[in-house]
């Protein structure tokens, strides 16, 4: 080979080697650059992903903080006892015992404030168990929140407020009963607040994995920040915490090995990819868990209301067969909590949830709507009656919990999807049916019927008419004579309520229970007392008897109202007898005793009405010191129904005689009945034989005739 050829070959090989070397160098540089770019990009992305996760966690921490205080406020504001206490003279003491004192060392709130219905007067305000001025502590923005929360709602008004010592979360809600009640013009407002102290921040940090979390008044550029805004949207502070920067940490760990070899770099990239995939899988699992928690009840594991509505929407949009919704409310669950505690109550909820879920193969889903109310979604051919029997059968046997035997029943309301019925309407219909089932007594099951809505509308209209009738005086008093069994002379009158309308008379058996249910019984009772006394002043020689509802007697203000009416009308208390039924002795004996003692102290007498049809014991008769006992008309009617009727009646009167309690017999319709009662020792008679209920004018006429005779 010539030198030229050799030179050209060497040059060619050299060039090839150089070219190959350059090529590999270029490839290496390009790969190194690409890998460096990949590493930098992944490092930045990992940091951003974790920062985004941390930001979401910070927002979730605020949301959880808000949710806990909101739930606590709702539990305490939507409370029948709180609603009753808020309108009483003991509102301040009640609020202190239940909220103010608790604030001293209670984890869920630092202070409790009750503002009166005028939205300016402070009924109770305690912070850490000590009284304080909320207006001074929170500023004028506090009363803005009170005004916003004064209307009844099922969700409180919750805002962060800048205080003189920092930042606090305050939740406010109108104090209202658990069940719907007639709308009042104004409500008292309950507010709980919790300060964002360092201890609270540390708790949020531990719960949501936000290391180094702290509260600052201004954002820190070198840290991650989440603003905290007040009710006007103004930023009043920031949650600040350092970024973990996991990508940078990983990069610094592997940096010494990157320059060592491409293999190590490749392994590093593979490791980063695996870490990223693992993190994505973890985040996906967290997202799935969050979705599950949003649609399920934490105690029972069943669907919650939101999850139930989502399921009903899916069924509505699907082509599946028609479905039916059942609402199941436990009868006697409150007694379980009261007797055994909430831990046992929670165990019972879980047992019931498990039993309901597996009660029938056509039940495709179960939900817990809160408290002791459950929902079942049924898709299949089984009839409503079959399903209701199956559900009720679950409660035929008691539940066993830690050796305890616990009995509860159930009331069921059912509604079928009829045509294009949206989920909320289906739920409302089932709830209407459940309301009807509970009204009929325990262990009942009712399927929705449009008549339920029409009946509720009629009741609502009747409530309005009743309210107007009380205020306008359309409900009148009639009087039935009470005569001496020995002389036949009229010794007293019992006042009875009558409601006459243009469409006909409405029975007291209808409008008096209605007044008790809708909160008008106190107004009706005062109206009847006032009207009866105004007429009775024209009959100075006769005693006056007025019936009193157990609800009235259990009202702490009842005695004061009666005394006020007597003083206003200048009526002798010794002429007045209040008639009460046995039920009040069973439901609230302590308050009944206080009211009776207070009224007897001024000279008012008390008669136990309808004796013989209830469960009043001899001890109760002696304890409450009744001045008279009225035998129920059923015992009088029994005189004509059997041979032992007279014996039972004589035994009852003998019991009263032994207790030195005078006896009135009501419902007397025949002379034979009157004679037997007179011989048995009954000193006063009442009934159609003696005289029907008459107007005040007719009573006056009868008295004039008797005096002229």
UniProtKB/TrEMBL annotation:
Database matches in SUPFAM superfamilies: EAL domain-like (SSF141868), Nucleotide cyclase (SSF55073)
Keyword Glycoprotein in record: no
Entry-linked SMART domains: EAL, GGDEF
EAL domain: residues covered: 459-707
InterPro entries listed in its UniProt record: Biofilm_reg_signaling, CHASE4, EAL_dom, EAL_sf, GGDEF_dom, Nucleotide_cyclase, Rev_trsase/Diguanyl_cyclase
One Pfam family this sequence matches: EAL
Domain GGDEF: 321-450
Keyword Cell membrane belongs to the record: no
Sorted UniProt keywords: Membrane, Transmembrane, Transmembrane helix
Top-rank taxon: Bacteria
Transmembrane segments: 21-40, 254-275
PANTHER family: BIOFILM ARCHITECTURE MAINTENANCE PROTEIN MBAA, DIGUANYLATE CYCLASE DGCP
Protein name per the record: Diguanylate cyclase (GGDEF)-like protein
């Amino acid at each position: 080979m010539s030198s030229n050829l050799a030179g050209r070959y060497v040059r060619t090989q050299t060039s090839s080697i150089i070219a190959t070397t350059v090529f590999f160098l270029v490839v290496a540089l390009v790969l190194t650059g690409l890998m460096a770019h990949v590493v930098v990009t992944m490092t930045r992305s990992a940091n951003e992903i974790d920062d985004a996760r941390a930001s979401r966690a910070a927002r979730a921490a605020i949301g959880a903080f808000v949710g806990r205080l909101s739930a606590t406020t709702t539990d305490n504001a939507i409370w029948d006892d709180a609603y009753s206490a808020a309108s009483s003279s003991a509102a301040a003491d009640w609020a202190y015992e239940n909220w103010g004192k608790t604030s001293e060392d209670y984890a869920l709130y630092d202070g409790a404030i009750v503002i009166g219905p005028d939205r300016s007067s402070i009924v109770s305000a305690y912070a850490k168990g000590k009284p304080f001025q909320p207006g001074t502590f929170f500023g004028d923005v506090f009363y803005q929140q009170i005004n916003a929360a004064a209307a009844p709602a099922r969700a409180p008004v919750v805002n962060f407020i800048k205080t003189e010592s920092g930042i606090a979360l305050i939740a406010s809600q109108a104090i209202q009963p658990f069940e719907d009640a007639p709308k009042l013009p104004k409500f008292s407002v309950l507010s709980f607040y919790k300060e964002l102290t360092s201890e609270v921040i540390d708790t949020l940090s531990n719960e949501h994995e936000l290391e180094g979390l702290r509260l600052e008044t201004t954002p820190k550029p070198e840290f991650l920040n989440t603003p905290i805004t007040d009710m006007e949207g103004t930023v009043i502070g920031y949650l600040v915490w350092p970024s973990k920067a996991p990508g940078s940490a990983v990069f610094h760990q592997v940096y010494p090995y990157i320059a060592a070899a491409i293999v190590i770099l490749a392994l590093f990239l593979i490791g980063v990819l695996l870490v990223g995939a693992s993190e994505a899988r973890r985040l996906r699992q967290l997202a799935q868990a969050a979705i599950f928690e949003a649609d399920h009840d934490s105690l029972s594991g069943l669907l919650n209301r939101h999850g139930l509505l989502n399921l009903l929407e899916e069924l509505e949009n699907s082509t599946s067969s028609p479905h039916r919704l059942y609402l199941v409310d436990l009868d006697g669950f409150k007694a379980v909590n009261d007797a055994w505690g909430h831990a046992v109550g929670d165990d019972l909820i879980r047992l019931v949830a498990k039993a309901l879920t597996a009660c029938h193969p056509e039940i495709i889903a179960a939900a817990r709507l809160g408290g002791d109310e459950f929902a079942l979604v049924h898709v299949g051919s089984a009839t409503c009656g079959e399903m209701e029997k199956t559900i009720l059968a679950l409660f035929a046997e008691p539940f066993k919990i830690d050796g305890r035997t616990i009995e509860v029943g159930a009331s069921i309301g059912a509604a079928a999807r009829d045509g294009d019925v949206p989920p909320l309407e289906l739920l409302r219909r089932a709830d209407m049916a459940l309301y009807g089932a509970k009204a009929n007594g325990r262990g009942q099951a009712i399927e929705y019927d449009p008549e339920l809505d029409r009946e509720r509308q009629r009741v609502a209209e009747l409530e309005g008419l009743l309210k107007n009738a009380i205020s306008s005086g359309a409900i009148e008093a009639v009087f039935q004579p009470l005569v001496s069994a020995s002389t036949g002379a009229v010794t007293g009158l019992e006042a009875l309520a009558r409601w006459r309308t243009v469409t006909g008379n409405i029975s007291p058996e209808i409008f008096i229970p209605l007044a008790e249910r809708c909160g008008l019984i106190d107004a009706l009772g005062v109206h009847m007392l006032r009207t009866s006394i105004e007429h009775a002043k024209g009959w100075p020689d006769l005693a006056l008897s007025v019936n009193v509802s157990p609800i009235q007697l259990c009202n702490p203000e009842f005695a004061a109202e009666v005394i006020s009416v007597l003083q206003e009308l200048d009526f002798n208390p010794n002429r007045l007898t209040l008639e009460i039924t046995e039920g009040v002795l069973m439901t609230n004996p302590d308050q009944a005793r206080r009211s009776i003692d207070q009224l007897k102290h001024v000279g008012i007498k008390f008669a136990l009405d309808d004796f013989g049809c209830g469960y009043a014991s001899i001890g109760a008769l002696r304890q409450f010191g009744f001045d008279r006992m009225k035998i129920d008309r059923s015992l009088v009617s029994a005189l004509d129904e059997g041979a032992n009727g007279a014996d039972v009646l004589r035994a009852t009167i003998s019991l009263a005689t032994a207790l030195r309690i005078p006896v009135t017999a009501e419902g007397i319709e025949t002379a034979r009945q009157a004679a037997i009662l007179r011989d048995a020792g009954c000193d006063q008679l009442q009934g159609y034989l003696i005289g029907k209920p008459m107007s005040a004018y007719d009573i006056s006429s009868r008295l004039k005739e008797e005096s002229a005779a």
